[in-house]
Amino acid sequence: MSDNNILEVKDLQVHFPVTEGLLKRRVGSIAAVNGVSFHIKRGETFSLVGESGCGKSTTALSVLKMQSVTGGQIIFDGKDITQHSPGQMRRIRQKMQMVYQDPFGSLNPRMKIGSIIGEPLRIHGLAGDKEQYHARIASLMKTVGLLKDMAERYPHEFSGGQRQRICIARALALDPKLIICDEPVSALDVSIQAQVVNLLMDLQERLGLTYLFIAHDLSVVRHISNRVAVMYLGKIVEEADRDTLFRTPKHPYTKALLAAVPEADPELEAQRAEQLIIGEIPSLRSPPSGCTFHTRCSQALPTCKQYEPSPRTDGSSTIACHLYT
Amino acid sequence: MSEVTLQAWRSNSLLAFHRKMLRDKPLGGIGGLIFALFLFCGIFADLIAPYGMNETDMRRVLQAPSLAHWMGTDHIGRDVFSRILHGAQLSVIIGFLAAGLATILSIVLGVLTGYFGGKADMLIQRFVDAWMTFPDLVLLIVVVSIVGPGKGQIIIILGCLYGIAGSRIIRGSTIAVRENMYTHAAQSMGATTLHILWFHVLPNVMPVVIVLFTTRVGAVILAEAGLSFLGLGIPPPVPSWGSMLSGGGRTYMYVGPWLALAPGLALTVVVYSINVYGDALRDMLDPRMRGR
Predict the structure, then answer these.
(1) 3-class DSSP state for residue A245?
(2) Which of A118, A128, B186, B194 could form a disulfide with A132 if both were Cys (CB 3.0 to 4.6 A apart)?
(3) For residue A155, what is the enclosing H or E element?
(4) Which residue among B188, B195, B200 places its CB closest to the CB of A66?
């Protein structure tokens, strides 16, 4: 692998057991993530998009090893961390931090902002003396646009956007190489979303951060990403750089997702192409045969039911679809 | 929140805290005052009691409350007020030690089973289920009749009894806290389990712990009174509110109602004040409730 990649995920599998009865008999398994491969280059923003339940958050948690991995390989910063013990992971986690979706739940209501932001430093014994510690917290707060005297306040005194800034400051405390953003703006008002996304982009430029960005809001993804991968039922169906994906989507699912983005202009909205996606997302317990998307695809071929398409590189995008073989 | 109260918080003084409680939560504040008075009486009973606890005066038997004897005298001429004060001492000791033991036991069992879950949780909590199906009083009577009555035994028995049952409450709130994103976030930052338990789980189950402790103090005082009432608690002549109720109180209730009223009222007021104080304490210590 090239040293250019901060993270490389190869054929990741995460299966959850399905148990039944008092004795927890194992009756089957759910493949939440089923053979996902991608890589993230240093300094870029790589986005995972898809409907809820498609495995994007599970993929993120597996990268942090917060979720036990069934199969595959995770290579972070040149090291294979797939088999790392919890103790070894503790050191690795200094270099990757996470920003969560819910800025209300991810801050301990009984800790002051200053001690929340300084917590990673204390955990890893990097707090130094009192003066250094406070100076570090103050500079982190300044970096994310919070005032220094807010350190003495409690989380409930802040709005959603400010709380997300606090979460970002906490994630930055250890100078991580990779920040995993799990739907960081989905819980915020649209006007605040832009502020937080711009803050993330600004920080990336200033500090040279790499993001693994997880979202379902395509306009946000389009704004922030360098490369985008679309997930459906635990698999990546299309991966391309941002402009290619948004201008010339290839996979029918990607097309459908893009077509589903609401149009602000009512006249344009009226002229929109017909619905490209049919029905509900199938159950993960019994995924459809062949291409898992064939049950909802308007362009499905007879082969789609029987054979699973393997990913193919076509120009600057990688697609797993029989229409492109 | 005004500047003044902010200052009060910063100074972090116990006095300022209670002054604020008295203003914002008058009922809880008054409960706290009564509770403090009770503590004071319990600790300094020997100094403030006007008569000795077993000082008899056969010339003054069953006298109604008067200036000399604020709560009257009992059937062998002992001053009831002095005996109530000494009874408070016993209640303070038993109440705090047994409730303290119970709370610590509940925290240890509840936090560990709630946070880790799994097989140990399953085993321990089935044991707790079985434990809770025994009626308290029967268990108490059996154990006391085996080991004999006494202060130490009562503290340990009551502590274990309430501690094991209370672990279920702590376990429940531990599970709720464990599922919060901030414990998850701490884990993803690389925090050790001990760090998470100490800085995230424990502070957030504290409101439950406070209420549990204060209600336990009341419950333990009542249980001790009940045991003493049955003659299984503190052996006479040491005054316990329970044995005062059962001994002179019950026998001479019609001749000298003050004999039953005094310990009964003392019990009621103290238990009630501890409970309202506990509730106020919980609200005041919650950062989200401050300034309301």
Answers:
(1) helix
(2) A128
(3) none
(4) B188
Is B190–A105 a contact, with Cβ atoms under 8 angstroms apart?
Answer: no
- How far CA B93 is from CA of B55, B220, B224, in Å, comes to 23, 11, 11
| Residue matched to tokens 């941002």 | A242
**Chain A residue with the nearest C-alpha to that of B287:** A110
- The residue range of the domain holding B152 is 3-289
How many whole angstroms separate alpha carbon A30 and alpha carbon A154? 40
Alpha-carbon gap, residue B260 to B263, rounded angstroms? 6
Tell me which chain A residue has its CA closest to the CA of residue B202: A110
Instruction: Verify cis geometry, omega within 30 degrees of 0, for the bond prior to A266.
Output: no
Query: How far, in Å, CA of B139 to CA of B133, rounded?
Result: 10
CB A196 within 8 Å of CB A184: yes
Shortest Cα distance from A179 to chain B (angstroms)? 11
Amino acid at B67: L
Q: Can you tell me the distance from the alpha carbon of B159 to that of B156, in angstroms, rounded to the nearest whole number?
A: 5
For residue B122, give how far its alpha carbon lies from the nearest alpha carbon of chain A (Å). 12
Q: Which of B195, B204, B287 sits opposite A123 (nearest CB)?
A: B195
Q: Is the dihedral of CA A89, A234, B177, B283 positive or negative?
A: positive
Burial class of A52 by CB neighbour count within 10 A (0 to 12, 13 to 18, 19+): exposed
Kindly determine whether residue A109 and residue B187, on different chains, have CB atoms separated by under 8 Å: no
pTM recorded for the entire structure: 0.79
Subunit contact B181:A106, Cβ cutoff 8 A: yes
Chain A residues within 8 A of B194 when measuring between CB atoms: none
- Chain B residues with CB inside 8 Å of A170's CB? 185, 189
Determine the distance in angstroms separating the CA of B111 from the nearest CA of chain A, rounded to an integer: 17
Per the structure, the count of domains in chain B is: 1
- B253 and B126 Cβ atoms separated by less than 8 Å: no
CB-nearest to A110 from B185, B189, B204 is B204
Residues of A in contact with B184 (CB under 8 A): 66, 100, 106
- CB–CB of A203/A142 below 8 Å? no
Joined tokens for residue B272: 């009630």
Q: Which of A284, A281, A290, A286 is nearest to A256 (CA)?
A: A281
Q: Are A251 and A229 in contact (CB under 8 A)?
A: no
CATH number of the domain where residue B122 is located: 1.10.3720.10
Tens-digit pLDDT string for chain B (292 aa): 334 444 444 445 677 777 778 888 888 888 888 888 888 888 887 777 777 777 777 677 767 777 777 777 777 777 778 888 888 888 888 888 999 999 999 999 999 999 998 888 888 889 888 888 888 788 888 888 888 877 888 888 889 888 998 898 999 999 998 888 888 889 888 888 899 999 999 988 888 888 888 888 888 888 888 887 787 777 777 787 877 777 776 777 787 778 788 888 888 888 888 888 888 888 887 776 654 4
Structure tokens at B27: 């009922």
Contact A93 B203 (CB under 8 A): no
Name the DSSP letter for residue A237: E
CB contact under 8 A, B199 and A119: yes
Residues of B with CB under 8 A from a CB of A: 180-182, 184-192, 195, 199-200, 203-204, 206, 287-288
What is the interface pTM, i.e. ipTM, of the complex? Answer: 0.80
Nearest to B20 by CA among B10, B11, B9: B9
